[in-house]
Write a sequence for this structure.
């Protein structure tokens, strides 16, 4: 409960104004087995886990949850959720880097510069693409934009999680 | 005066430390999830890629899993703010404040934000014989109502009830 797949499902029901039955699994691997077997109807999961199943036509693929279509050969023909009529529907499992409050500005500047260098490292980009991840190239590599983005995500998910009444504690 | 001197010395030492960061002391990236998972893999790749720009210092990953990622995040929130303990967290950073009640730290004010790393896209997939054929089944034009009928009825209402609904909706019975 509260995992990315669950959140994506909650957002989907919210966008459609409809209620579906949530079937909790210990992980998305057993859920995928049941989806292929037809025991469950729908699932939302990261490309890392779904691309090969989509490619092998073991499941029916409907859409990607990014703002733009993906470039991965197996997924490039999939429309976005927005193209499919669900305005503003966007979910990605994004990752960010943080330091404890009070870290000196010079240290933060060095860490941010190192992060930016890492994100441009061809070896790193290749490895991330292999995981199905898209390395950040936009302004969210800047600390202020990163913070703004996280604040917007908190505002986006809070009402959805509260309405569903799910808690991880 | 003595106190003032001591203060000045402390500030100078602190500034010198900041100047020479990272020095030879390793930088630890805390991952609030188990080793081998997707976030751990991102952290390990990142640690390797940040080593060179940080002057060759060793960058290590510390897995501190539990409580929806809040245990590892708490560890970093309470760590010495010297740049040697960092946190790599995913979307959970934004959902923790709601998902975990009584969080022992504040996501918005207990951290310095260093920048984002990546986005892992998701896909909406269905069982192979799901009647809805394309996403267009719930899309353009009359989105809302049609969406409701397509999904709620085709997918979630038992076939018997569905047949009745289908006489007045664009729904195909199973």
């Amino acid at each position: 409960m509260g995992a990315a797949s669950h959140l994506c499902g909650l957002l989907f029901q919210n966008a459609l104004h409809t209620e579906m039955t949530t079937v909790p699994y210990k992980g998305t691997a057993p859920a995928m087995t049941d989806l292929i077997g037809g025991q469950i109807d729908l699932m939302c999961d990261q490309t890392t886990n779904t691309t090969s199943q989509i490619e092998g036509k073991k499941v029916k693929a409907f859409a990607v949850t990014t703002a733009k279509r993906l470039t991965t050969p197996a997924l490039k023909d999939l429309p976005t959720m927005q193209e499919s009529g669900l305005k503003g529907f966007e979910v990605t499992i994004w990752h960010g880097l943080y330091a404890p409050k009070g870290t000196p500005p010079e240290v933060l500047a060095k860490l941010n510069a190192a992060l930016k260098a890492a994100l441009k490292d061809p070896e790193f980009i290749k490895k991330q693409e292999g995981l199905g991840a898209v390395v950040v190239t936009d302004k969210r590599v800047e600390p202020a934009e990163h913070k703004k983005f996280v604040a917007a995500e908190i505002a986006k998910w809070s009402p959805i999680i509260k309405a569903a009444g799910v808690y991880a504690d | 005066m003595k106190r003032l001197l001591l203060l000045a010395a402390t500030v100078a030492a602190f500034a010198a430390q900041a100047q020479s960061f990272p020095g030879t002391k390793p930088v630890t990236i805390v991952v609030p999830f188990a080793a081998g998972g997707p976030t751990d893999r991102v952290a390990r790749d990142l640690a390797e890629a940040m080593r060179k720009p940080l002057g060759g210092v060793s960058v290590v990953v510390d897995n501190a899993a539990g409580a929806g990622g809040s245990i590892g995040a708490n560890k970093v929130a309470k760590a010495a703010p010297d740049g040697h303990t960092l946190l790599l967290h995913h979307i959970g950073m934004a959902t923790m404040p709601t998902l975990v009640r009584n969080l022992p730290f504040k996501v918005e004010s207990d951290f310095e934000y260093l920048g984002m790393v990546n986005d892992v896209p998701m896909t909406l997939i269905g069982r192979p014989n799901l009647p809805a054929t394309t996403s267009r089944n719930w899309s353009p034009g009359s989105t809302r109502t049609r969406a409701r009928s397509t999904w709620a009825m085709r997918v979630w209402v038992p076939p018997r009830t569905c047949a009745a609904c289908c006489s007045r909706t664009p729904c195909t019975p199973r």
Remarks:
- Residues 2-99 of chain B form a domain with the D-Maltodextrin-Binding Protein; domain 2 fold (CATH 3.40.190.150).
- The two ends of chain B are 87 Å apart (CA to CA).
- The first helix of chain B runs from residue 2 to 20.
- Chain B has two domains: 2-99, 123-174.
